[in-house]
Amino acid sequence: xxxxxxxxxxxxxxxxxxxxxxxxxxxxxxxxxxxxxxxxxxxxxxxxxxxxxxxxxxxxxxxxxxxxxxxxxxxxxxxxxxxxxxxxxxxxxxxxxxxxxxxxxxxxxxxxxxxxxxxxxxxxxxxxxxxxxxxxxxxxxxxxxxxxxxxxxxxxxxxxxxxxxxxxxxxxxxxxxxxxxxxxxxxxxxxxxxxxxxxxxxxxxxxxxxxxxxxxxxxxxxxxxxxxxxxxxxxxxxxxxxxxxxxxxxxxxxxxxxxxxxxxxxxxxxxxxxxxxxxxxxxxxxxxxxxxxxxxxxxxxxxxxxxxxxxxx
Amino acid sequence: xxxxxxxxxxxxxxxxxxxxxxxxxxxxxxxxxxxxxxxxxxxxxxxxxxxxxxxxxxxxxxxxxxxxxxxxxxxxxxxxxxxxxxxxxxxxxxxxxxxxxxxxxxxxxxxxxxxxxxxxxxxxxxxxxxxxxxxxxxxxxxxxxxxxxxxxxxxxxxxxxxxxxxxxxxxxxxxxxxxxxxxxxxxxxxxxxxxxxxxxxxxxxxxxxxxxxxxxxxxxxxxxxxxxxxxxxxxxxxxxxxxxxxxx
Lengths: 313, 248
Ligand SMILES: Nc1ncnc2c1ncn2[C@@H]1O[C@H](COP(=O)(O)OP(=O)(O)O)[C@@H](O)[C@H]1O
Ligand SMILES: [Mg+2]
Fold this sequence. Notes:
heterodimer; A: alpha/beta; Alpha-Beta Plaits; 2 domains; six-stranded mixed beta sheet; four-stranded antiparallel beta sheet; 14 strands; binds adenosine-5'-diphosphate; binds magnesium ion
């Protein structure tokens, strides 16, 4: 069941394909994003996330397939699509030699604001993204997190219907990442459809109503974050064994249930739901004498786990 | 129309804040003027006209080349930086972005021209022109600068990197030498005459000199006009096509 399906699709694609020379980047991508929802396109480096975003934002033409954004065709109705969207690309798109305020005022003017209203809109956005103090400094002096925030603010000089954010938090420190997440939440509450890409399941989990996993140019899974995580072990228990003999014995006991093994480090990984009771039971099962397990750690599934599960599971 | 003004304002601001651009457009022209007059001028025979008066229009033309070369670089910087994608996603036209760069180039060159003329006057440049002569000379110079700037923009669109873009424009910096810009063509070897007499810089320089010194200009102004408008008529659509190809 898609949430808010009755409100219509903000983004719809069918059989989107793209190749650069002999390299096939997308081969038949089908996506549907409900209006007003937050959608995450999850995939490793080189999966084709940026290419997908660029096609949807009318910057690149697909070789085949169809896509509509805000009800408009990305090929035939470029201008209408462009007026309905905002794009914050993977790399900051700002003038380093202009100040933060100048950059925002310029974008606002290009979006049709008068001089006065561009000024007030810029001030409002600088305040919203905690950049007021840095407003009159050149962007060249900004930190990575500040640039990223300004970059997102630049996408909001007019209220878009659909906002594209390509890896908005890659390379950010945890605090800036948190600020970014809050900004996405604010947008979503204001009714903006947010289409973001990420390499982190955790981020998709935090932000998105629905997630599509892109790999090898195809969507290999789609669903709510909960549904997606159910396809992989909810959590992983890593056991570091006391010695080679203990390692072999435990590996034999857990055969078939192991998620991974690292003989050099004497580490075994096994699925768990993460509850104290289950972890305790597993430890007792592997090591009834309480001498063989040196250390243990519980991990959330990573994107790698999701991929392993989806592609080889 | 507002977007043209906004982007021209942007390019001018970026130019003002780029130390390279400031040096190339103000310090270099003045230095060139002094170098030509004091280093070479003593050895060059230009008839009854003082060398400073002879060479000033040539230096203006040379500076237009430097200004246009910088345009190639600034256009290329934009094209290799994410900002062009943002502009496109905002439905800003490529022509408006390029026009902004050309406008900044014209502004830089206007400043350069003023600086060169200021220094030239100080060291003995004495033009004879009436107001109409000045206006016509300025008009031709402005057209020449605009034409070269668009050629620079095309070079910036062709080049893969800003460094390469600078290299593409060496022709513009070179063309004034085999012309009457710095020395009379008669002093050059015969085989150069054919080229020097039929390249675009020569009619531009001859018109400027003739108009400023109030001497007969023959058909030079018309030839200059035809060259510039012809080059513009080719370069503008080429720029639009290159921009489309670059952003496909
Ligand atoms: N303009 C291009 N020319 C050639 N290959 C490209 C181009 N853009 C992307 N690619 C290739 O397409 C693949 C997917 O790239 P991209 O969409 O950027 O992936 P992601 O954003 O998921 O990391 C990569 O292998 C990349 O090298
Ligand atoms: Mg990418």
